[in-house]
């Protein structure tokens, strides 16, 4: 494992500059493969084209956050004094930066524009670097640090990053003039317990008078409730039933929760059991010794029932389908739960040779050098 400083049993600081660069390069490569893998999942009928677009949006946001963090820590380990800093990652069932790293991005965003205005431009810093190299024959470490922080701040100011809590967005899926309109509401969080990005997608039928995103009464309430319910400890059926109960003219039809992780890496994370043996046996080259777990939980409405809401009114309530044998939705309050594993060719070959029982029903996706993805059962 790369040189690290210990914070606790699950968190590590990457105190080696080269290891830090390899880490961000590896995780960025993994996030970059997700949209293509998601497209392959459409052919397996796990998700639809709309969901692929949504997953791609959040994967690109996560990639942008990783790139920003890589700039922040590019030189910071070589600076003496209070400016010295190292990236902290969760090495147990995560593989991603800890939640505090993502929160730092969100905290820096409001001041990023002002920070750029009062600091030298990238061109000015480059000129100073050249003068120091040529004139003093020294390595301009402080100026390199200044450049990296300038690039970090530019990345944060540019937006499009993955924040601890992403905005709740509604997209119309049906005819806008229909009485019963179908919306896809999606949002995402960076879970503070698991330290992984988690995406939520909720399809609802809307029988209200005004379009949901334009409704000044319902839309703020919907956003607030969904943000408050974005806890991985809550079962999907708990989230959906609460939403169904609180909004009489919004009817949840499908609720999906996608865990974009954890990442397993022979170099950077601590793993046990078959996945450790797979990565050890693969002996993959640098950058190819990893696997990404991808879990989809799905809750589907089976039917609607009309229930009394007082003396003279009734409301529509959804009855959700739960796995009666507790096979795929065990303990989740879900209709089904699908696990997938994304891994390069060498780790996949090692997994196929080892053939551990717990991995036989997991779908495997192998991104190739040509940009194509092979899927296996």
Summarize the structure in words:
Mean pLDDT is about 90; it is low at about 1-5. The longest helix has 27 residues, at about 15-45. The two termini are about 30 Å apart. The chain has about 375 residues and is of the alpha+beta class. The protein has helices at about 15-45, 50-70, 100-110, 110-120, 120-135, 140-155, 220-230, 235-245, 275-280, 345-355; strands at about 5, 10-15, 90, 170, 180-190, 195-205, 250-265, 290-310, 315-320, 335-340, 365, 375. Strands 4, 5, 6, 7, 8, 9, 10, 11 and 12 form a 9-stranded mixed sheet that branches. A 3-stranded antiparallel sheet has the order 1-2-3. The chain has 2 domains: about 5-155, no CATH class; about 170-375. Helix 1 runs antiparallel to helix 2, helix 2 (about 50-70) packs antiparallel against helix 6 and helix 5 (about 120-135) packs antiparallel against helix 6 (about 140-155).
Q: Report the C-alpha radius of gyration, rounded.
A: 23 Å
Please, what is the average pLDDT? 91
Specify the number of helices. Answer: 10
Q: How many E strands?
A: 12
Spell the H/E element sequence. EEHHEHHHHEEEHHEHEEEHEE
The biggest sheet amounts to: 9 strands, mixed
Q: How much strand content do the residues show? A: 15-25%
The count of domains is 2
**Proportion of helical residues:** 25-40%
Query: What class, by secondary structure content?
Result: alpha+beta
Q: Termini distance?
A: 31 Å
Uncertain runs are: 1-6
**Global shape:** globular
């Amino acid at each position: 494992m790369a040189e690290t400083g210990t914070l606790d049993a699950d968190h590590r600081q990457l105190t080696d500059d080269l290891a830090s660069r390899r880490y961000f390069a590896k995780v960025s490569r993994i996030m970059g493969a997700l949209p293509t893998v998601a497209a392959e999942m459409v052919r397996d009928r796990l998700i639809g084209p709309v969901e692929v677009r949504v997953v791609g949006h959040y994967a690109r946001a996560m990639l942008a956050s990783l790139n920003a963090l890589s700039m922040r820590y590019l030189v910071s380990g070589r600076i003496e004094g209070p400016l010295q800093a190292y990236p902290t990652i969760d090495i147990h069932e995560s593989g991603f930066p800890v939640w505090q790293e993502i929160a730092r991005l969100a905290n820096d965003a409001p001041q990023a524009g002002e920070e750029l205005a009062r600091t030298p431009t990238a061109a000015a810093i480059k000129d100073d670097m050249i003068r120091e190299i040529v004139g003093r024959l020294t390595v301009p470490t402080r100026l390199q640090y200044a450049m990296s922080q300038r690039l970090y701040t530019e990345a944060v100011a540019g937006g499009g990053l993955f924040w601890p809590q992403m905005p709740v967005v509604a997209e119309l899926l049906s005819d806008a003039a229909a009485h019963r309109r179908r919306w896809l509401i999606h949002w995402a969080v960076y879970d503070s317990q698991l330290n992984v990005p988690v995406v939520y997608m909720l399809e609802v039928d809307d029988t209200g008078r005004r379009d949901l995103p334009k409704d000044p009464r319902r839309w703020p309430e919907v956003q607030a409730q969904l943000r408050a319910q974005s806890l991985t400890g809550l079962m999907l059926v708990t989230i959906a039933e609460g939403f169904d109960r609180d909004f009489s003219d919004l009817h949840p039809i499908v609720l999906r929760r996608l865990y974009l992780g954890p990442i397993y890496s022979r170099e950077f994370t601590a793993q046990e059991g078959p996945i450790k043996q797979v990565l050890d046996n693969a002996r993959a080259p640098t950058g190819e010794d990893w696997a990404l777990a991808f879990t989809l939980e799905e809750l589907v409405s089976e039917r609607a029932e009309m229930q009394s809401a007082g003396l003279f009114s009734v409301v529509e309530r959804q009855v959700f389908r739960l796995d009666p044998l507790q096979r795929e939705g065990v303990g989740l309050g879900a209709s089904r739960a699908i696990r997938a594993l994304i891994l390069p060719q060498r780790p996949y070959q090692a997994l196929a040779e080892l053939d551990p029982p717990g991995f036989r029903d997991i779908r495997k996706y192998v991104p190739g050098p040509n940009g194509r993805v092979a899927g296996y059962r």
